Amino acid sequence: MTPDRFDIAVLIGRFQPFHNAHAALLARTLQSAGQVIVLLGSAHAARNVKNPFTWEERAAMIGSTLDDATRERVRFLPIRDYYDDRRWGEAVVAAVQEYSAPGARIALVGYLKDASSKYLQRFPRWQFVAVPKFDEIDATSIRQIYFESEDWPATQALLGGLLPTPIVHYLKGWTRLPHYHPLRGEHLALEENRRVWGSGPFVTVDAVVTASAHVLLVERGRLPGKGLWAVPGGFLEPRERVLQGAIRELREETGLGLLDSTLEVALQGVAVFDHPDRSLRGRTITHAHWFDLGDCRLPEVSGADDAARARWTPIAELRAMESRFFEDHFNLLDHFLSLHP
Question: Where does the record place the Nudix hydrolase domain (predicted)?
Answer without folding.
Answer: 192-336
